[in-house]
Design goal:
binds 2'deoxy-thymidine-5'-diphospho-alpha-D-glucose, 7-stranded parallel sheet, alpha/beta, dTDP_Gluc_deHydtase, binds nicotinamide-adenine-dinucleotide, NAD, 329 residues, NAD(P)-bd_dom_sf, EC 4.2.1.46, Rossmann fold, lyase, two-stranded parallel ribbon
């Protein structure tokens, strides 16, 4: 199995899950180790995998690795909305050209391909809209990040239909758990509180995200690999809708602080209001169920992980906060 982006947040958790639960799988990771990739995230399993440092948009690096694989799971991406607003180019390069490069290679070698994508391709929902995203919701992305992910999904659909590439796509909601970069909302606020800094909420903090534990996401990917139908798309979500204000209050409470000890800061331009996933198809057709349905206890476990692993996140913290400070966030 070739896993791209295996030194990033979700990819590293996928590698751990695969090595521990499916020792028969021969894992190769391809990762460019950008600012978001961290070889330390794979330290525990380093002896059990092959690690290749390289770019998914580099056909010469990609092709022999794909040729030697039975299946490719493509996690690698530029993944942070705020960065895409500051500089969209790496998003176009990695998310579009990188996906194109992998697709041409899996097409050439007739290799099974699974594409990791996001619910953000569907745009956003109003707070009072009872609707949730389904597999037939039209694409309507808002940011440079989500538009490049939407474009990459459409490439996969086209390569499946036009060239018969054996591909599946999953669109998942917001993940939380260990090894997530401190630029992202939940780890940023946990590590702020652990550093004696007040959490920062964009706007009024009323935006809603649909949280899922990263291990539930990754088990769903395995379910799709084993039982999914090539050419199809599956939405992954665990009914975890929470507004940002409530998440920050919960983090503060779990860390023994006053629930209102946060600051409201400059909002994200074009900030999507609400995401919500209807994962009925994955549950009824493929039999997947989340193992972390309780957000509060999953969050408490995640807080404990950051408390116990400061050596992992501390080196990223100052540079990340300097970027935010420059944007008034
Ligand atoms: P991340 O930013 O933590 O990790 C991305 C990884 O990709 C890093 O290890 C980085 O070094 C690597 N990478 C970046 N550019 C590369 C390139 N050109 N070549 C090779 N490697 C490269 O991202 P994440 O949060 O783990 O997200 C992984 C995937 O899941 C992405 O495709 C993202 O769109 C998708 N996704 C994320 C979430 C979420 O909540 N984080 C939710 C749904 C879908
Ligand atoms: O929905 C899936 C997507 O979730 C993934 O595709 C993306 O890769 C992933 O980054 C995530 O995107 P978001 O933009 O939703 O995540 P982020 O962690 O950046 O922000 C979550 C919410 O918290 C969002 O409403 C913005 C807000 N926020 C974020 C930060 C960093 C704050 O209020 N304060 C902050 O400091």
């Amino acid at each position: 199995m070739l896993i791209t982006g295996g030194a990033g947040f979700i990819g590293a958790n996928f590698v751990h899950q695969t090595v521990h639960e499916r020792p028969e799988v021969d894992v190769t990771v391809l990762d460019a180790l950008t600012y978001a990739g961290n070889a330390d995230s794979l330290a525990d399993v380093r002896e059990k995998i092959t690690f290749v440092e390289g770019d998914v948009a580099d056909a010469a690096a990609v092709d022999p690795l794909v040729e030697a694989s039975d299946v490719v799971v493509h996690f690698a991406a530029e993944s942070h909305n705020d960065n895409s607003l500051a500089n969209p180019w790496p998003f176009v390069q990695t998310n579009l050209i990188g996906t194109y490069t992998l697709l041409e290679s899996v097409r050439r070698h007739a290799v099974r391909y699974h594409h990791i994508s996001t619910d953000e391709v569907y745009g956003d929902l109003e707070l009072d809209d009872p609707a949730r995203f389904t597999e037939s919701t039209p694409y309507n992305p808002s940011s440079p990040y989500s538009s490049t992910k939407a474009g990459s999904d459409l490439l996969v659909r086209a390569w499946a239909r036009s060239f018969g590439v054996e591909a599946t796509i999953s669109n998942c909601s917001n993940n939380y758990g260990p090894f997530q970069h401190v630029e992202k909302f939940i780890p940023r606020q946990i590590t702020n509180v652990l550093s004696g800094v007040r959490p920062k909420l964009y706007g009024q903090g009323l935006n809603v995200r649909d949280w899922i534990h990263v291990d539930d996401h990754n088990r769903a990917v395995w379910t799709i690999l084993e039982k999914g139908t090539p050419g199809e798309t599956y939405l992954i979500g665990a009914d975890g809708e929470e507004n940002n204000k409530h998440v920050v209050e919960l983090i503060l409470q779990l860390l023994g602080q006053d629930a209102d000890a946060y600051d409201l800061v400059t909002d994200r331009p074009g900030h999507d209001m609400r995401y919500a996933i209807d994962s009925t198809r994955l549950r009824t057709e493929l039999g997947w169920e989340p193992r972390f349905p309780d957000f509060r206890s999953g969050l408490a476990e995640t807080i404990a992980w950051y408390r116990d692993n400061e050596a992992w996140w501390r080196p990223q913290k100052d540079a990340t906060e300097a970027k935010y400070a420059a944007a008034g966030q």
